[in-house]
Design brief:
Chains A, B: Keywords: Calcium, Hydrolase, Magnesium, Metal-binding, Phenylalanine catabolism, Tyrosine catabolism. The structure is a homodimer of 422-residue chains. Chain A is an alpha+beta fold. Chain A has 2 domains: 108 residues, Roll (SH3 type barrels), CATH 2.30.30.230; 300 residues, Fumarylacetoacetase-like, C-terminal domain (Fumarylacetoacetate hydrolase, domain 2). Chain A has 12 helices and 26 strands. In chain A, strands 6, 7, 8, 13, 14, 16, 17 and 22 form an 8-stranded mixed β-sheet that branches. In chain A, strands 4-3-2-1-5 form a 5-stranded antiparallel β-sheet, with no helix packed on it. Chain A has a 5-stranded mixed β-sheet with strand order 9-26-25-20-21. In chain A, strand 2 and strand 3 form a beta hairpin. The longest helix of chain A is centred in the first third of the chain and has 15 residues. Chain A is globular. The model of chain A has no long low-confidence stretch (mean pLDDT 97). Chains A and B meet through strand 7, strand 9, strand 10 and helix 6 of A and strand 7, strand 9, strand 10 and helix 6 of B.
């Protein structure tokens, strides 16, 4: 159980002026970790903390002696909390560190950010019952939501090597597809290229093989969260995915945002999760009073699209959808950790647990084009008159996320964006 | 295309006498790479080459300057061939290296071997049409072999963190299962614990993201092969696997043999692969004259079981089944590489491609207990009278593999074994 402390005080302000601007993603209450280097350099990436529009270089400030984020992520909860307290004290108004730490600041606009850590294993879950139902209808009209869904936090392994940093383009994949009325499959560029609005939960301390993590301890093993876009080739997926699950339809690229927003920073945005009336209660290894009372997190999510035509015309991205995790997720992050390890599977610092596509119940809350366009049958119309069923070359897709509530300072997850190239 | 050269000469003998014994897995024609350290030590693992019952320490012999197998695996084909030629020349009878290299030898019985490299991403394929059909019948009686099977080399991502070295025990996993007649799932130890007889193909040089590897170049990216046992919890698998594939039923442990037998060593054991009459030909990206003529490899595989009772009675392991890859695999290793990257997915040195369970067409050629016991309905009877449908605590399962043909010296893959603990 996380308890609010002085680092969450809404009255705290930073001596970094940009951190105090209303709507800023990175106030002194946030303090997310990322990896950066001077833009255009080939230096090794270093660990930094986002504050306003600046990055604090943790090594230059004498706060850590490593450039390896995975080492930092392996810290105990007590060590993490101590580090957070030190950062909060040093960055707040009136701190005696101001003179020294100002020397270790650089503008975010002057740095290159990257994938926040070395990702060992990547697992993708399927935590939105709305997404599972809508997509299930398209792949299996007679059997949309499978009988295991409300018992098993469905997940599968993904590809770590092809996870890319925000801002990095990727090539439209090629592959096998088979139209329903075709006798044999054909080969060519994906024609139903989609995004998936996800969160990426990163593992901090791991567990030894054969030693499950109980739900009561599960959150101690979560370091932080990012935005995550699991680009998907729906036509390839439909033909390849049975019986062992999606493969080439997913592993050509996934994009992750640069800033790890810690569990400590998320503490004011915890939420209860009660299952809808009539749904079975989780098995004991997935259940605890704490998990029910505050195992969920309230994070607002947005999807934005900017087509090449919009970009050339200087038009801002348009919002495709928006939802909140409390409306979308059927399983809490703690439940994902407890489930993943209940068989003895070992998690390691830097492992990534994708939430799966976070679609809320409403039509405007869908986290993929497959849902928004009813499987490609109903094109969406953009403000400039362009239409989309799936993504076209030159499209830039951006995910944003933030937490807000009465009595707390808003914190942001930043954004992740990527552009499709032909 | 690999051409036989002096390193394959069947007349070659080694000055390491044990390498010349008939039936030895590691004659001078083999020269597989592994990682070792003195048994009982906590030293860093070093790179060695198996020769007879000895290991040649490559750094001590002045042959490499790294302890990092992944660095060695990233070498070009020309570099690998040069290294093989040097090892072959130095280890053969009459070599001028004998005096110097003898100082860099140690007995295999005196060392600890481990997983042969740092495994980045692990993919498991499904290359035996016989396994796919038999298992498909059990999970989907009305629909055993899915329509995509003969077109798509079906594969999915697995868990790298839980891959363990030969000889390492593992704990029987716990998890959710649901009996067909039960209303709700229950939780407890796996009751249908199985092994899977597989080969592990390891990637050498990788490819850049977005740049597929053509089938003509595919084998240049394969470094070598090991035995691989993908332990499986069938009762957990049956309940969890839809719609995204197996997850906790697989990721508690997989065991890999210590020696990477190189593509160069396998050259004399290449085989043609012709599809059965009436089967569709592969799409062009999976097809080439070379792949048809010699894209397959002839490797004989055996499964051995020793129960705890047998061990206590001093009884040798009993053979459960045996097959040959040419009878079991519907796709060649080159086709797996071409398929995996055709969408732009990037492979990296040390990545592992599991073959999937290699079951041949005959009943005695099945690569899992699920097949041998007809899904648990027909127990197999062991020589001591014990019966097995699935694995019991204390059972030790061993996979062995070797290549033999007229006119070539037999080479072995060694073995991988593991014991189930309660």
């Amino acid at each position: 159980m996380t308890i609010l402390n002085a680092t969450h005080d809404p009255k705290l302000r930073s001596w970094v002026a940009s951190a105090n601007v209303a709507g800023c993603d990175f106030p002194v209450q946030n303090l997310p970790f990322g990896r950066f280097r001077p833009a255009g350099s080939q230096d090794a990436f270093r660990i930094g903390v986002a504050i306003g529009d600046q990055v604090l270089d943790l090594k230059a400030a004498g706060i850590v002696d490593t450039d390896d984020m995975n080492v930092l992520m392996a810290a105990t909860v007590a060590e993490r909390q101590a580090l957070r307290a030190r950062l909060s004290e040093g960055l707040r108004e009136g701190s005696t560190q101001q003179a020294a730490w100002s020397q270790a600041l650089c503008a975010q606009s002057s740095v290159e950010l990257t994938v926040p850590c070395r990702i060992g294993d990547y697992t993708d879950f399927y935590t939105s019952v709305h997404h599972a139902t809508t997509v299930g209808k398209q792949f299996r009209p007679d059997n949309p939501l499978l009988p295991n869904y409300k018992w098993v936090p469905i997940g599968y392994h993904g590809r770590a090597s092809s996870i890319i940093a925000s801002g990095q383009d990727f090539k439209r994949p090629q592959g096998q597809t088979k139209a329903p009325d075709a006798e044999v499959p054909s080969f060519g560029p994906c024609r139903r290229l989609d995004y998936e609005l996800e969160l990426g939960w990163f593992i901090g301390q791991g567990n030894a093989q054969g030693m499950p993590i109980a739900i009561a301890q599960a959150e101690q093993h979560l370091f932080g969260v990012t935005l995550f876009n699991d680009w998907s080739a729906r036509d390839i997926q439909g033909w390849e995915y049975q019986p062992l699950g999606p493969f080439l339809s997913k592993n050509f690229a996934s994009s992750v945002s640069p800033w790890l927003v810690t569990l400590e920073a998320l503490a004011p945005f915890r939420a209860a999760f009660e299952r809808p009336a009539g749904d079975p209660q989780p098995l004991p290894y997935l259940d605890s009073p704490d998990n029910r009372a505050q195992g969920a997190f309230s994070i607002t999510l947005e999807v934005l699209l900017q087509t090449e035509k919009m970009r050339l015309a200087g038009e801002a991205p348009t919002r495709l959808s928006s939802t909140n995790t409390t409306r979308a997720a059927y399983w809490t992050p703690g439940q994902l950790v407890a489930h993943h390890t209940v068989n003895g599977c070992n998690l390691q610092p830097g492992d990534l647990l994708g939430s799966g596509t976070l679609s809320g119940p409403g039509a405007s809350e869908a986290g993929s084009l497959m849902e928004l366009s009813a499987g490609g049958k109903q094109p969406i119309v953009l403000p400039n008159g362009e239409r989309r069923t799936f993504l076209e070359d030159g499209d830039t897709l951006t995910l944003r996320g933030y937490c807000e509530r009465e009595g707390a300072v808003r914190i942001g997850l930043g954004e992740v964006s990527g552009t499709v190239r032909g």
